[in-house]
Amino acid sequence: MSSDSGEAAESTTGAAAKCSIDLVNLAVCAPLLNVKVGDPTGAASKPCCAALLGLTDLEAAVCLCTALKADLLGLNVDAPLALNLLLSTCHKNAPPAFQCK
């Protein structure tokens, strides 16, 4: 079951990026947002980071932002803050001008 959200994000260069994975796969990222700071094992991050494996930083940002805005993670969170937490945990970086609105 593939989900083409049609969502795109603009970077400072004007290049648009789309999410190339099924957004439902990112549901595994929800527990990461519920874990208390200082998870010593990092167990909560493994499934989420695995779901982002192979994506560029921009693609990962677009996918996570789209999932957060569509409430696919089932959490009422501040999307920009949650996006930064998820990306940094998985060693990804949103491009400087990327905004999750």
From TrEMBL:
Q: Which SMART domains match?
A: AAI
* Highest taxon, organism lineage: Eukaryota
**Name of one Pfam family that matches:** Hydrophob_seed
Q: Supply the Gene3D superfamilies for this chain.
A: Plant lipid-transfer and hydrophobic proteins
Q: Which InterPro entries match?
A: Bifun_inhib/LTP/seed_sf, Bifunc_inhib/LTP/seed_store, Hydrophob_seed_dom, Plant_LTP/defense-related
Identify the residues that the record assigns to the Bifunctional inhibitor/plant lipid transfer protein/seed storage helical domain, covering every copy. Answer: 19-100
Give the signal peptide range.
none
UniProt similarity note: Belongs to the plant LTP family. PEARLI1 subfamily.
Q: What is this protein called?
A: Bifunctional inhibitor/plant lipid transfer protein/seed storage helical domain-containing protein
This chain's source organism reads: Linum tenue
